[in-house]
Structure formats: C-alpha cells, structure tokens
Design brief:
403 residues; alpha/beta; 16 helices; 9 strands; 9% strand; disordered N terminus
C-alpha cells in the first residue's frame, strides 16, 4: 500500500502549491456564500482527476461557482449549455471543410470539448442520445471518434456538470455513473447569510475570482496525492462500506472503491496532510449517493457513527435543534390553560414571548451540550448553525417584548 510521506516530494514546492490553492479557495469562499463544501469538492476533484455533479434548484450559484473555478485553473476550459437539439458540431467542432471536400471527415476540435482539459456541461441530462454517447466516451475513455481520423486521445481531465434535476432515464445511467462526486446545492437559509448576500449586492461586489491555481501547482498537488498514505483508514473504510450495505443497501463497485481512494488521498492533500485520517471518510456522503439530496444525510450519519462519536452526537443535537426551531415545543396557553405546541414562526406572529423564551432556553441547552464535545471542524460548523438559530430566536423574543 501507499507508504510514502512528505519527504518523498519537494517540501518547498508543496508548500508553495498548497498556498496557491489555499488563496484561491479562500477567495472563492469569500465570493460564494455558504458554498465551502462545494468549493472543497471541486479542488479535491481536480487533484484526483474526477468528475463532479451539482444538482439543485435554479439560482443557487451552481453554474457561477463551477464556471469561476474552471476559469481559475489556468487550463483550457470549455463550457456549454446542453439542449435537446445540441449537436456534435457544437460540442466537438465543425468539420474541416477542405478535408470534407476530399471526402475526409475530421472535426476541428479547437475550443471545444475535444481539446479542453476542464469542461462545464450545464443541464447535462437534456442532451440527445448521440450527444450523450460522445460525452460518455470523452469522459470515460478520454477519447473522441473523429471521423476518418479514427478514435483519438483528448486532454480532458475533469468534467463539471450542473442540472436542476437528476437523470430520469435509464439510458443516462452510464453517464451518471462517471460522476464520482454528487452534491445537491440548496438556497441560503440563514438570516446572516442572506443579509451578507444583500450587502454584497448593495456594495456592487461581484463573484469574479482573481487568484489562480497554476498547472505547475496543480501537478505538484497531484504528485503529493499519489504519495499520500491511506493505510491508516483501510480497515475503517471497509467497516463503513459494510455498514452502508447493511443499513442502506448501498453497494460500491471495485472501480468506485479505487476512485474513492484517489479522492480521499486528494482530500488529505487539500487539508495539508500526507496521511489519511478517519474523519476524511465523511467525504463519502458526497460520493456514494444515488440521490444526493435524499441519501446525503443517511450516508453522513452512518459514516459519522463509525469515524467520529463526537460528530455523531453533534449531528443528533443539531437535528434536535432543527426540530425545536421548526416544530416548536409545548407551552401553557395562558388563555385556556391547555398545553399547546408553538414554533418560532407561530409565536412570533402573535408576539408570544413566553413560547419564544422557552424555545430560546432549549436551544441554549443544546449549545451548551455541543460545547462539551470535541471541537472538530464539522462539530464547530454545527455549533455555529445552532448558535445562529438561538440568537435569531432571542432577537425575535426581544422584539416581542419591545426591548
């Protein structure tokens, strides 16, 4: 198994390349609110040479984010909006007319999918079967059937795909299978995030990204990923996959397992490590999912239970907080003397400061319980979300009391 360490590569080159990547990641984080996991996935994917699918409703920055990333790589980048009538010419270029007159069929691949290193295919599931088959060959085999020239190699390294929906036809299964990373992107929910977005618009801030990751820097990071030691998590990975099979009937093919190892090694590099750690396996929640919206929490909970007891406890507390916030708690109705259930929205609408105070108190208890847990990055993120809920309820309660 992989046993090489950081000494196997040039430390200074690695640090420079990692710093270059980190600067770009931070800038993208500042431009795209609450898209840190999506950004992380993109960097892991390009290092591991894997493909990414982002699904979600319109208007959640799927295309803007992936487009900004593609442009920041300093590589040949091709982007296209797929339609039912998208043709081979649009994707792979027109025929060479002088050669066509001689009876030779060869497309000019310049500035098309057949020449690029990174591609963004928007609304990918809307293409015709002919277009889909050519895309599949390009993604899977890194080749293109170019007429009388025969099948040729193409430099494609990564495809990012976006859509408002998941593939609906069985004919798309092979294409869907080639996207290792699958994540459902949701609209901003937190008040502070929405206010930040409005502030960005008011100030005229754009999502344009200026930092880049050079080809040399990327190659250095890839070399590092190939030297990452993943032996410490091999047994645990098997445990996780077996548990996912028992609990959710999730099966992982041999090819997928190899791809998962590549992704985990790339993830370790992004984190600045040359050894994989147990919590790296949480990345599986954005990989082995048939329906990224539905399956993500199932896989995440299952993995967290095995790799991080603190995170599992934090996730349960987070679920409890969300339940209290959304569905409220039972309180005494002073008018009738009966126990009734009121949530934040209902209590706010009628100015029920008693119900708001009770909800605020319960959320405070959860925040205190979270503070007792080990503060890993994941636990801290959940703590921040619950603290934001509690502060919002406290603010509404103060408004209800006229304070």
């Amino acid at each position: 198994m992989a046993t090489k360490t950081l000494q196997a590569i040039d430390t200074k080159e690695f640090e420079a390349a990692h710093g270059e990547m980190d600067s770009l990641m931070r800038e993208m984080d500042s431009r795209f609110i609450q898209r840190n996991q999506e950004i992380l996935i993109l960097f892991v994917a390009i290092i591991a040479r894997k493909n990414v699918f982002f699904g979600g409703p319109p208007g959640v920055a799927k295309t803007a984010l992936t487009s900004a990333f593609g442009k920041a790589l300093g590589m040949d980048f091709f982007t296209y909006l797929i339609r039912k009538d998208t043709t081979q010419e649009e994707l792979f270029g027109p025929y060479d007319l002088p050669l066509l007159k001689k009876g030779q069929y060869k497309r000019i691949l310049t500035n098309r999918l057949g020449q690029c290193q990174v591609a963004l295919l928007d609304e990918i599931w809307k293409g015709s079967s002919g277009a889909n088959n050519s895309i599949l060959t390009a993604i899977n085999e890194k080749q293109y059937d170019n007429g009388t020239c025969g099948r040729i190699d193409i430099p494609l390294q990564m495809v990012m795909a976006c859509s408002n929906e998941l593939p609906q036809s069985d004919d798309l299964h092979a294409l869907w299978d080639r996207f290792l990373f699958r994540r459902w992107v949701t609209p901003l929910q937190d008040r502070a995030d929405r206010l930040r977005l409005m502030a960005m618009k008011r100030k005229g801030e754009t999502i344009e990204v200026h930092n880049t990751l050079s080809p040399a820097g990327l190659e250095c990071l890839r070399n590092a990923a190939e030297n990452v030691d993943y032996s410490p998590i091999e047994e645990l990975l098997c445990d996780v996959l077996e548990e996912l099979g028992r609990q959710h009937a999730i099966e992982v093919s041999d090819r997928s397992l190899v791809n998962i190892i590549d992704a985990l090694c790339a993830y370790a590099v992004v984190q600045g490590r040359m050894v994989c750690e147990p919590t790296d396996l949480l990345l599986l929640a954005d990989i082995i999912v048939a329906d990224p919206e539905v399956d993500h929490p199932k896989v995440l909970n299952c993995v967290a239970k095995l790799v991080s007891p603190d995170l599992e406890a934090a996730m349960k507390l987070h679920d409890a907080a969300v339940e209290i916030y959304a569905n409220g708690i039972e309180v005494l109705d002073p008018r009738t003397g009966d126990m009734i259930r009121r949530n934040v929205e209902q209590a706010s609408a009628i100015g029920d400061s008693g119900a708001l105070g009770a909800i605020n108190s319960e959320l405070k208890k959860i925040v205190k319980e979270l503070q007792k847990l080990g503060q890993s990055g994941q636990v801290e993120g959940l703590s921040d979300k619950i603290a934001a809920m509690q502060l919002k309820v406290a603010r509404i309660a103060r408004e209800a009391l006229g304070i």
